Amino acid sequence: MRKRAIRAERNTFTGKTVADCPTRGACRRGLCICVTDEDLDPLRHHEVRRSYVPGERIALSGQPLPCIGTVESGIATISRTQDRGTRQIVRLLQPGDLLGRPWRRASRFDLEAVTRVEIRGFAPGAFDQFLSQSPELQARMMRIVQRDLDDARAWLGILGRRTARQKLAGFLVHLALRQNTPSSKRDTCVVDLTLSREQLADLLSLTFETVSRHLNGMTRDRILRPVTRRVFEVPDLQALVRLANQDTGGAGCRTRVSGP
Amino acid sequence: MRKRAIRAERNTFTGKTVADCPTRGACRRGLCICVTDEDLDPLRHHEVRRSYVPGERIALSGQPLPCIGTVESGIATISRTQDRGTRQIVRLLQPGDLLGRPWRRASRFDLEAVTRVEIRGFAPGAFDQFLSQSPELQARMMRIVQRDLDDARAWLGILGRRTARQKLAGFLVHLALRQNTPSSKRDTCVVDLTLSREQLADLLSLTFETVSRHLNGMTRDRILRPVTRRVFEVPDLQALVRLANQDTGGAGCRTRVSGP
DNA sequence: CGAACGCTTGACACTCTTCAAGACATGTGG
DNA sequence: CCACATGTCTTGAAGAGTGTCAAGCGTTCG
């Protein structure tokens, strides 16, 4: 308590001032909000840093994860490859997201870097051991995992019983809300897909041709404006939200309205 | 330790002998494996039991859950209703499954009884307070929640990029493995859907007409044999597994094989 | 320059949804 | 007992939305 009061401006987890933390803005899920100064001391010598190049495997299903920590920069995917070739991306890891799981040796999914990825955390064994002695830290970890669980279930709703365009719109809204500050929600905002058309397809359970068609279709409909091939401007975010949530425009809806 | 040695045959959580626990066979996820005799004493006076009739709401999104505990009997759904009418079931709660979440006041999904459902557990507040003082119990809870998270992500793979028949087959396999003892896996087994066609549709992101058609189609193909309208016999479980995992039969596959 | 890669676009086939009608089972009231 | 209503399930026909296969464009990199 006293230590924290004295150096309130410093985040000993990163060893820099809080202002330097690269994931500070988005960091509502990672270890940053989980590990405090008091927690740190026994773990100081078990810090792990890694970086990966685009396309590099961070871990394969069945293999142990390099650490339990936070994605500091870059985008990674959590995915599983089915019995014959098709891949399903089940989660996108963005800066600030938690990586790894307490008390879990092996990952049950593949982790792969999309861009250059930098992660920082602690060696799994050391962290687990420390965790078992700190009920408070455990409670905070539990909240993160539960949030991940709710997110995964909510994602089922995004993918289920929706047209390709609705799925895409839903994902674009998700990205827009995460990449833009809350104050700019109402105005024009810019969304960086980062992912290729094929990766988008694996995420949304579509083919890359369908993704391409609808991205261009939404551009023709003035819902998107291309900046580069993977960066789009969204003139009216609310219109995108309506599109994601049911705005069928009259015909071709895959969902059914119950009741009269 | 000594207490447990003396009454090893008794499960003080239920107040009966272990043999009487209705969820004993399937109970690998609920509080049963989480709460031990030593844990119990401070919670003894906060036990909660509830039962629900078919169709009854256990909790609505935003409302608190009645308790944190285990489903003792019956089937319930965790679902979310989208903006206009469509419903997505994100999880089926079966006997032995954990109900509720530590340190969570409100559910983010709707919970609804499909059959008559009996749950038993502890008042959320009392349980949370106790949990914060027991790192060991927390660790076991964490494993359960993480397993749920993995299951939710695996379910994304079942629903994504699969035909209606493959989805149905995948779910039937899931039920078959859970409703039959491991020893009978290879032989004929019986699967009780319990859910109506419409509930199946909400679970698999289909329409109830499509569910009906494929259930009958699989019957014509000798993959299923109807016992009642919601109970089927599976003559060859392995055939069902193959069907779920890619058995396209030659044409009309929705998945794509990568590579040459 | 050619190869590799990501992206776009077209034509066609197929699955699924949608709309509609009817079968079957169950329960209620005359 | 029948008529009737209700809810669940089945089945048919038509159309919409994607998947599939194929060809071509643009960029990057050796």
**Biggest β-sheet: strands ordered side by side in the sheet of chain A:** 3-10-5-8
Structure class of chain A: alpha+beta
Major β-sheet annotation of chain A: 4 strands, antiparallel
Compressed to H and E, one letter per element, the order of chain A equals HEEHEEEEEEEEHHHEHHEEH
Proportion of β residues of chain A?
A: 15-25%
Give the largest chain-chain interface (CB within 8 Å): A-B, 51 and 51 residues
Distance between the termini of chain A: 60 Å
Oligomer: homodimer
Rg over C-alpha atoms of chain A, rounded to the nearest angstrom: 20 Å
- What count of helical segments of chain A does DSSP give? 8
Mean pLDDT of chain A: 81
Ranges of chain A where pLDDT stays below 50 over 5 or more residues in a row are: 1-27, 248-260
Tell me, what's the shape of chain A? elongated
How many beta strands in the DSSP annotation of chain A? 13
Q: Please bin the fraction of helical residues of chain A.
A: 25-40%
Structural commentary:
The structure is a homodimer of 260-residue chains. In chain A, α5 crosses α8 (237-245) and α6 crosses α7 (208-220). The longest helix of chain A is centred in the middle third of the chain and has 25 residues, at 135-159. Chain A has 260 residues and is α+β, with helices and mostly antiparallel strands. Residues 1-27 and 248-260 of chain A have low confidence and may be disordered. Chain A has eight helices and 13 strands. Chain A has a four-stranded antiparallel beta sheet with strand order 3-10-5-8. In chain A, strands 4-9-6-7 form a four-stranded antiparallel beta sheet. The first copy, chain A, has a three-stranded antiparallel beta sheet with strand order 11-13-12. Chain A has helices at residues 2-6, 37-40, 124-131, 135-159, 164-179, 197-204, 208-220, 237-245; strands spanning 10-11, 16-17, 47-52, 57-59, 68-73, 76-81, 87-93, 98-99, 110-113, 117-122, 189-192, 225-226, 231-234. Chain A is elongated. In chain A, β1 (10-11) and β2 form a beta hairpin. Chains A and B meet through β7 and α4 of A and β7 and α4 of B. The structure holds a DNA duplex (30 and 30 nucleotides).
